[in-house]
From TrEMBL:
Residues 40-193 form the Pseudouridine synthase RsuA/RluA-like domain. GO terms for molecular function: pseudouridine synthase activity; RNA binding. SUPFAM superfamilies: Pseudouridine synthase (SSF55120). It comes from marine metagenome. Belongs to the pseudouridine synthase RluA family. Keywords: Isomerase. This is Pseudouridine synthase RsuA/RluA-like domain-containing protein.
Length: 259
């Protein structure tokens, strides 16, 4: 313990693979959009949590990933191997995963520096009057409900979301959304702030009841991600098709409006 290292000394280090802290690999089907030696892109279904957390020890995307590929980046921590970014439990769509540290650093840097182009699709309550627009409000933690975020003026973190109306369906609108930033619940909070919450979003006012109005979860889908490959820097585009629950809702309302 008292030895001082001198010039010319040889130091031998043993590097062990990152521990997964007892996280179990589970045989859960994965919808793989793309995979190579550096990364994966998967289509996460609604209802699946991205990584283990209190109350969600099993059945997560990480549990499924460990069964598919045990070699994942450890930079995200023992509970989040390979995870570069997240989607909310009830949001479906594209998620990127890093297989090694080089890929993780590159992907994380692109997200941090806003080099990633993200496109979401959402069904929202009400008729959005402007064909397109930009929502710019800061987002911070709700004062009384710690599970909830809120749009703020002088507090929180700056956030920006562009939107485009694709279709109007009676009392609902179908939107394409382009978040510039990646704050917690950003799209959900921004849409609620302009009084058009995501359909089915219990937390932010999108829940509607009735035999023809039920949406089993928030109708928000991460449809497309554009990013550069973490190793060769080639541009990549990943898309996840509109899931059946949202598509069925669209079809039903189109038929109702055009019998």
């Amino acid at each position: 313990a008292k030895y001082r290292i001198k010039t010319g000394d040889r130091i031998v280090l043993s590097i062990y693979p990152p521990s997964t802290s007892g996280i179990e690999a589970e045989s859960i089907p994965l919808k793989i959009i793309y995979e190579d030696e550096a990364m994966l892109a998967v289509d996460k279904p609604a209802g699946m949590v991205v990584h283990p957390a209190p109350g969600h020890a099993k059945g997560t995307l990480v549990n499924a990933l460990l069964n598919h590929c045990s070699d994942l980046s450890g930079i995200g921590g023992v509970e989040r191997p390979g995870i570069v970014h997240r989607l909310d439990k009830d949001t479906s769509g594209v998620v990127l995963i890093a297989k090694n540290e080089i890929a993780h650093r590159s992907l994380a840097s692109q997200f941090k520096n806003r080099k990633v182009k993200k496109t979401y699709l959402a069904l929202v309550r009400g008729v959005v009057k402007s064909a397109s627009g930009i929502i710019e409000t800061s987002i911070g933690r709700h004062k009384t409900n710690r599970k909830k975020m809120t749009a703020t003026i002088n507090q929180g973190r700056q956030a920006e979301t562009r939107y485009k109306v694709l279709e109007t369906l009676g009392h609902f609108s179908y939107l394409q959304l382009f978040p510039k930033t990646g704050r917690t619940h950003q799209i959900r909070v921004h849409l609620a702030s302009i009084h058009h919450p995501v359909l089915g979003d219990k937390l932010y006012g999108g829940l509607i009841t009735g035999p023809y109005l039920m949406m089993p979860r928030q109708a928000l889908h991460a449809h497309r991600i554009e990013i550069n490959h973490p190793v060769n820097e080639q541009p990549l585009v990943f898309e996840a098709p509109v899931p059946p629950d949202i598509n069925n809702y669209l079809v039903a309302y189109r038929q109702n409006l055009n019998p």
